[in-house]
Every structure is written in structure tokens, then in C-alpha cells.
């Protein structure tokens, strides 16, 4: 049974005083509307907009659209159609995985520069509903084809992988919107689900940080789409909780715009240090700055 868990705590739950373990979130139902927003945006672009640079290094608007098409086609091929396409060599580390994916992405984007914006838009519009139909067939708790590596997982449930896919499609659309001067999708409907997936990188970020059991790092993201989470040391690991711990050891506060940019490597380290407030253990708080919820 699916639940609408894009905002499981509701508006009143943004600053819950009793943290509870984070729960699965089921975001497949958001994909059709997110795709509709993208198509309205793309069909309204002027010819010169497609060549505009974006915050995604060395990629133009057209390159990002090509990448979104590529990732949707790959997911359908490898997941729905069971296509097997092994890398040329053995991938032994996270860094090698990132390098392999970067190579795949670059090859596709370079080739797609041959296409016209009109054709690229039409192909994107075709693949969107196909992707949504496929994702909707998946058992949310079944094993995903690909693990969420930025969370340190070697196997992930489908709901988390679908959430990861949502964050990627939201993020790249946001980058296009910024490049062409269009309004961003930063209301609670769109941004909160992305943040709720992004924060699940925190236990992996802190994996090498030792602390006494009971040590907590409270994260407050301010703004309409914000929320509070608590990272708690339990035994030999860190556990992510939803809600605010009033007896925190360290508290990190930042606004929602800085939060999504930091999680997606869109905020330079020097600016990131200026955008967050750390109370308590400064060292524990500074570790938050290295959090990444993208493959980089």
C-alpha cells in the first residue's frame, strides 16, 4: 500500500520536538506533473536559450535536456527491458563508478549536440510518460536495479532509487530554469521531497566521524520547503531521524536555497561556510559541509 509521503509530517511537523526514524517516501506520483512543468518550460524557450550556459559544468541548456533524455532511456533499457551493458572493466571503488558514469554522460551529450532542440524536446516528451509508467509498476520495497551509491548503499529499495531519480530530474530542471531566467520549482510541493531524499546522505557523510552514543547533530532547513532532521549516534553508527532534537550536541541551520545547492554540489565551499550557522561542536557541524547527494 502506498502512502502520500512527500510531506509525511505535514505543515505542523516541520519542527517536531520528538525525532522519529525517517520513513520511506514514495515519489512516483510526482513525476507526471514534474514532466509537464519541464515540457511547458522547454516549449517556451527561444532558440538562443538552448545554448545558454548552466551551473552544471561545461553543459548548456541543450546538454542538460539531452542528459535527462539519456538517463530516462537508460532506466527503461536496464530496468524495464533488462538490457545488460557491463562496463569495459571492473569498477572497484566509488571514484571509479563516478568516472564511468561521467564518461557515459559525456559520450551521450556530445552525440546529442547533433540534434535540433525541437527533436530533442519531442523525444523528451515521448520518454517521460514511458518512464512514469515503468516506475509506477515497481514494488516500492523491492530491490532496485541500481543502488543509491551516494548514500553508501550497495543495495537499495525501489522507493529510494525512485526518490534519487526525482531529485535528479528536479535538480536538472532547476538548473535549466536558472539559466534561462524562469521561475524555479522551489515551493514546498517540489523542493521538500528533494530535500527529504537529499538528507539521507548524512549517515554516509558522517560514517568516519566517531562520537559518544547519544551525540546528536540537529539540522534545520529554513523556508517554506524546509524541515528539521536529527542525526544521532547510536552504538557504532549514525541514524537519521525526522524532527528536531531539543537536546542537540550540534545544530546546523541554513535556508532552503543554500541547502539544495550544498547537497547538489552547486554551492562553492567558501560560500557554503558563509551560508550555514553552526552552534555547539563546530567540528561536528563542519562535517555537514561535505555532504553530497549526487554522484560526484
Keywords:
296 residues; alpha+beta; Four Helix Bundle (Hemerythrin (Met), subunit A); Nonspecific Lipid-transfer Protein, Chain A; 2 domains; 10 helices; globular; disordered N terminus
Our measurement of the CA-to-CA distance between the termini, rounded to an integer number of angstroms, reads 34 Å
How would you classify the helix and strand content by structural class?
A: alpha+beta
Give the spatial strand order of the biggest sheet: 1-4-3-2-5-6
Instruction: Report the strand count.
Output: 6
Q: Can you give a write-up of this model?
A:
With 296 residues, this protein is α+β, with helices and mostly antiparallel strands. The chain has 2 domains: 25-185, Up-down Bundle (Four Helix Bundle (Hemerythrin (Met), subunit A)); 201-290, SCP2 sterol-binding domain (Nonspecific Lipid-transfer Protein, Chain A, 2-Layer Sandwich), CATH 3.30.1050.10. It is 45% helix and 11% strand. The protein has a 6-stranded mixed sheet with strand order 1-4-3-2-5-6.
Task: Outline the fold blueprint.
Layout: E1 20-21, H1 31-43, H2 61-80, H3 94-112, H4 117-137, H5 158-180, H6 188-198, H7 202-205, E2 216-222, E3 227-234, E4 237-242, E5 250-255, H8 256-263, H9 269-275, E6 277-280, H10 282-287
Parallel strand pairs: 2-5
Antiparallel strand pairs: 1-4, 2-3, 3-4, 5-6
